[in-house]
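Input record, target 12 of the design panel.
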C-alpha cells in the first residue's frame, strides 16, 4: 500500500495541476496515480487494484486513497492569519457543493504568527465518494449518492443481524517501539502545543482551536468515552475543553464532582484513522440506549473489520490509537473555570463565548515524526460520513414503526429531519414524527412524507410540503422541548419549540380531499412507457446522463 510523505515516497506533482483536474471534474489526478505506483493520463483511471484500500490504519493511508481517486487538492503557501484556508474551503463548497468539494491538503502554512511546513488536511469525508472509498464500495459513474445509499443499506443489514448494535472487534495493543505516535515524546515545560498548526478558523473565534481531536475521558461506571469537542489553545500547556450539555463528557465531569474530585485525566488524540474519527464525532455507539460501558475503539474495529492498533498513554490512563499523529495528555480542572470562545459552530452561526469552561493542563505530548494536523472547517463542510449513523437511526425508527421507509437529516440544513413512510392509517405521520421531535434535540422541524418522496432530495421534500401539506390539519407544535446546546434560535439556550409537518397525502378521514390527482410524470410513464428510453436511444449525446470521471 502506498502512502504519502513519511509513510512512503511523495507523489509526483508535475504531470497535471490538481486544481485544474478537480475543476474539470475529472476523477483521477495523475499525481495520485504516481502515488500508487502507476502512470496515468488525465481522465483515465489507473488499475483500481493499485489504489490504497480500506480499512485504513492511518490518516495518511486514507489521504493517499483520496489523492489516488482525484478527491484531494493541494495548496501551498496558505496564510491562515489572513484566513486563506477558510476562504479556500468556502470557495470549494460554493463551486462544487457541500458533497462535491474535494479534500484539501495545505503545505507551507502560516498560522498564529508562525510558519509551518504542514501538512494540514481537511474536508476528508465531505465528498459523497468518501462512503465508497471507506467501505470499499463501487463509485457510481453517474449517481454521486449511490455509494451512500448502498452503505446505508449495508449497515442497516448488519444492525438487523446483530440486534441493533454494531459488531465489536477488540483493539490490539502493540509495543511502544512499534507505535508511530511514540516517535517523539515531550514532557513538562518542554511541551508546547503552539508548535502545531492549529487554526483560528474564523476572525470571530476566541483563538486557535484543536477541533478534530478524539477527546478521551473515563468514569468508573460509564467506562472510557471518545468525544469530539472544540478545544481552544490558550498557551503552550493550556487548552480549554468545551463539554456541551447532554454529552457524555459533561456527564463524566458531573459524576467526578459528586465523588469529590477536582481534576480528571484527559487525552486528546489528533490525526486518528478515519473510522475512529467518525465514531468519535457521531452518535455511534448511541449511549442513550446503553448505560453500560462501551469500548468505542472496539466499535471502530467492528466497523473497519479490523482491530485498531492501540498503545498506552504515558500516564497509563488510556489506550489510544497507535497510528495517530499527535497524543496530548493531561488533566482537566473541573472546579476552577475560565472564559472560552466564541467559536464558529456547526449550525453555521458563531457559537457564543462561555464565561466558564474547563481548563486542561498538558503534561505530555507524543507524536509522529513530522506530524500531520487535521482541521475542521466547522459549519462549512460535512465533518464525517453518515451512512452508519443514519442506518442506526433508521433501524430504531423501523423497529418502533414498521411503516417507516427512510430517514435523512440534511447537514446543510441543521434542525430539519425528513422521514418517509408507507402510510397505512389516518394520523400515522404525526404519530411517527412526534417522538422524533420530542426526544431528538437536533430535530426542530420534522417533515414526514409519503414513500414516493426521496428524503435525500430536499427538492422532493419541498415539493411534498408545497403540494400535500395542509397546515391547519397536518401540523403539531410542541413548546419547551430540550434544545441542542448549539441551536442559535433557542431562546434560553436550553429549550426550544418543535414542529411536526405531515406532508403526506391527506386522506379524507384526515380532512383531505376525496381523492388526489395523479402526478403528471406517473401518468406519462404509465401511458407512454417506452418514450423515455426511445428518445435517449435516438439522441444519446444530448440526453444521456453525464458520466462522472
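The sequence produced for target 12 reads:
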Amino acid at each position: 500500500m502506498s502512502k504519502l510523505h513519511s509513510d512512503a515516497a511523495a507523489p509526483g506533482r508535475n504531470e497535471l495541476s490538481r486544481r485544474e483536474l478537480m475543476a474539470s471534474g475529472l476523477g483521477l489526478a495523475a499525481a495520485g496515480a504516481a502515488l500508487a505506483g502507476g502512470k496515468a493520463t488525465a481522465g483515465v483511471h489507473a488499475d483500481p487494484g493499485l489504489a490504497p484500500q480500506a480499512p485504513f490504519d492511518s490518516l495518511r493511508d486514507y489521504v493517499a486513497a483520496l489523492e489516488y481517486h482525484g478527491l484531494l487538492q493541494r495548496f501551498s503557501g496558505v496564510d491562515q492569519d489572513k484566513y486563506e484556508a477558510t476562504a479556500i474551503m468556502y470557495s470549494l463548497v460554493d463551486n462544487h457543493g457541500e458533497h462535491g468539494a474535494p479534500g484539501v491538503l495545505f503545505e507551507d502554512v502560516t498560522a498564529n504568527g508562525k510558519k509551518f511546513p504542514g501538512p494540514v488536511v481537511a474536508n476528508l469525508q465531505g465528498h459523497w465518494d468518501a462512503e465508497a472509498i471507506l467501505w470499499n464500495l463501487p463509485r457510481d459513474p453517474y449517481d454521486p449518492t449511490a455509494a451512500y445509499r448502498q452503505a446505508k443499506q449495508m449497515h442497516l443489514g448488519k444492525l438487523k443481524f446483530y440486534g441493533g448494535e454494531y459488531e465489536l472487534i477488540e483493539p490490539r495493543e502493540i509495543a511502544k517501539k512499534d507505535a508511530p505516535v511514540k516517535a517523539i515524546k515531550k514532557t513538562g515545560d518542554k511541551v508546547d502545543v503552539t508548535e502545531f498548526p492549529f487554526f483560528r478558523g474564523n476572525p470571530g473565534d476566541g483563538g486557535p482551536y484543536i477541533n478534530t481531536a478524539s477527546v478521551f475521558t473515563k468514569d468508573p461506571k460509564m467506562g472510557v468515552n471518545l468525544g469530539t469537542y472544540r478545544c481552544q489553545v490558550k498557551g503552550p500547556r493550556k487548552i480549554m475543553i468545551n463539554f456541551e450539555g447532554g454529552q457524555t463528557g459533561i456527564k463524566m465531569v458531573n459524576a467526578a464532582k459528586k465523588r469529590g474530585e477536582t481534576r480528571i485525566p484527559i487525552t486528546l488524540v489528533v490525526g486518528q484513522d478515519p473510522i475512529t474519527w467518525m465514531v468519535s464525532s457521531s452518535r455511534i455507539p448511541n449511549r442513550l440506549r446503553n448505560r453500560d460501558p462501551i469500548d468505542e475503539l472496539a466499535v471502530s474495529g467492528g466497523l473497519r473489520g479490523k482491530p485498531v492498533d492501540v498503545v498506552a498513554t504515558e500516564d497509563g490512563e488510556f489506550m489510544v490509537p497507535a497510528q495517530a499523529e499527535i497524543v496530548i495528555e493531561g488533566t482537566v480542572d473541573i472546579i476552577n473555570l475560565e472564559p472560552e470562545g466564541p467559536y464558529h459552530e456547526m449550525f453555521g452561526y458563531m457559537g457564543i463565548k462561555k464565561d466558564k469552561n474547563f481548563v486542561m493542563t498538558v503534561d505530555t505530548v507524543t507524536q509522529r515524526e513530522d506530524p500531520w494536523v487535521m482541521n475542521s472547517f466547522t459549519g462549512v463542510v460535512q465533518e464525517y460520513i453518515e451512512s452508519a449513523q443514519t442506518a442506526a437511526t433508521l433501524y430504531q425508527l423501523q423497529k418502533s414503526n414498521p411503516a417507516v421507509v427512510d430517514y435523512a437529516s440534511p447537514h446543510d440544513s441543521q434542525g430539519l429531519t425528513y422521514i418517509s413512510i408507507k402510510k397505512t392509517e389516518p394520523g400515522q405521520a404525526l404519530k411517527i414524527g412526534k417522538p422524533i421531535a420530542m426526544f431528538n434535540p437536533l430535530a426542530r422541524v420534522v417533515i414526514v412524507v409519503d414513500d414516493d418522496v426521496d428524503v435525500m432530495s430536499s427538492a422532493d421534500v419541498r415539493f411534498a410540503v408545497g403540494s400535500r401539506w395542509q397546515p391547519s390539519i397536518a401540523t403539531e407544535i410542541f413548546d419547551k422541548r430540550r434544545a441542542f446546546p448549539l441551536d442559535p434560535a433557542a431562546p434560553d439556550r436550553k429549550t426550544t419549540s418543535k414542529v411536526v409537518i405531515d406532508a403526506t397525502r391527506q386522506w379524507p378521514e384526515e380532512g383531505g380531499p376525496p381523492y388526489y390527482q395523479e402526478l403528471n410524470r406517473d401518468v406519462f410513464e404509465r401511458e407512454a412507457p417506452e418514450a423515455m428510453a426511445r428518445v435517449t436511444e435516438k439522441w444519446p449525446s444530448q440526453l444521456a446522463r453525464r458520466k462522472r470521471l
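Residues 42 and 152 are 32 Å apart (CA to CA).
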